[in-house]
């Protein structure tokens, strides 16, 4: 059986899980322990990031490489169109989702931890003692991005980086809403890798409320203030949630 080394909370792992589900391929998830578990991952894959797929004797790191492998080896329900312009658009969008949405989403999530107690608490490991939980809340002010300015660019992200990421994501969400107003999916009449990449990489902007995503209940439906709750982007999140309902499998 296929084995996926992953973090449940990783949006790049989510992209692979979404495609595995769409292709109806059974797989076993192996949750990697941040830190120590990544040493084992390094031993098997030569690098320390998730996701990594083990398919028999083949080990593949990187979500894009994994999905290309799946597309080659398992032809049912292809996710990369064969028609040239659509294929080009699909591959471009996937790369844009990985490089732009994925990184900006990480920044805005970090930036909103200071303001959103539900996000902050949901992201703590479930076994965090109560005393540490309340300490995290009383330190919340210090998590606010404008407190980080003095830390410089070497530590976390500066408040300016976070504002910039926010602006980029607003523009991305506007563009996505415009495309999806006219068509059911981003590049074709059926879902493609572009849809799964964009939907998954937006995970940190608004966490999906779907049973297949095994994240703390407190996180489900929560998101980044000013993006997740902006009515202008409701159409995008409704589309994303429908993609989950139709194609993500609960087990
Ligand atoms: N380009 C990679 C990015 C993977 C990535 O950033 N993984 C993160 C989790 S979302 C990770 O493993 N972080 C741990 C680390 O860098 O040590 C892909 O598409 O798979």
Explain the overall architecture.
The chain is an alpha+beta fold. The protein folds into 2 domains: 72 residues, Glutaredoxin, CATH 3.40.30; 164 residues, Glutathione S-transferase Yfyf (Class Pi), Chain A, domain 2, CATH 1.20.1050.10. It is 51% helix and 7% strand. The chain contains 10 helices and 4 strands; from the N terminus they run E-H-E-H-E-E-H-H-H-H-H-H-H-H. Strands 2-1-3-4 form a 4-stranded mixed β-sheet, with helices on both faces. Strand 1, helix 1 and strand 2 form a beta-alpha-beta unit. Helix 1 packs antiparallel against helix 9, helix 4 crosses helix 8 and helix 4 runs parallel beside helix 9. The longest helix has 29 residues. It is globular. 35% of the residues are buried. About 3% of the residues have low confidence.
Distance between the termini: 15 Å
CATH C-level name of the largest domain? Mainly Alpha
What level of helicity do the residues show? 40-55%
Strand arrangement in the largest pleated sheet: 2-1-3-4
Small molecules bound in the structure, each named once: glutathione
SSE arrangement, N to C: EHEHEEHHHHHHHH
Low-confidence stretches: 148-155
Beta content comes to 5-15%
Domain module tally: 2
CATH-defined fold name of the largest domain = Glutathione S-transferase Yfyf (Class Pi), Chain A, domain 2
Overall CATH architecture of the largest domain: Up-down Bundle
Main β sheet profile: 4 strands, mixed
Shape designation:
globular
Would you tell me the overall average pLDDT? 90
Radius of gyration: 18 Å
Determine the number of helices (DSSP H or I, runs of at least 4 residues).
Answer: 10
Find the structural class using helix and strand composition.
Answer: alpha+beta
Work out the number of β strands: 4
């Amino acid at each position: 059986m296929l084995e996926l080394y992953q973090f449940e909370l990783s949006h790049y792992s989510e992209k692979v899980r979404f495609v595995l589900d769409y292709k109806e391929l059974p797989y076993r998830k192996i949750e990697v322990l941040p830190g120590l578990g990544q040493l084992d991952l390094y031993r098997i894959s030569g690098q320390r990031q998730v996701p990594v797929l083990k398919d028999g004797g083949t080990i593949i790191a990187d979500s894009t490489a994994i999905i290309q492998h799946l597309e080659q080896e398992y032809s049912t329900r292809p996710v990369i169109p064969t028609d040239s312009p659509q294929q080009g658009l699909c591959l471009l969008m996937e790369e844009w989702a990985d490089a732009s949405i994925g990184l900006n989403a990480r920044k805005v999530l970090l930036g909103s931890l200071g303001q959103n107690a539900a996000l902050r608490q949901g992201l703590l490991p479930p076994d965090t003692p109560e005393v540490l939980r309340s300490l995290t809340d009383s330190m919340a002010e210090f998590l606010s991005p404008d407190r980080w300015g003095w830390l410089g660019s070497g530590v976390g992200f500066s408040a300016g980086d976070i504002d910039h990421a926010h602006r980029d994501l607003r523009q991305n969400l506007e563009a996505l809403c415009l495309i999806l107003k006219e068509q059911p999916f981003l590049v074709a009449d059926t879902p493609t890798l572009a849809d799964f990449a964009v939907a998954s990489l937006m995970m940190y902007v608004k966490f999906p409320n779907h049973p297949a995503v095994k994240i703390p209940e407190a996180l489900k439906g929560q998101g980044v203030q000013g993006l997740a709750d902006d009515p202008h982007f409701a159409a995008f999140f409704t589309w994303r949630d429908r993609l989950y309902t139709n194609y993500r499998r609960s087990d």
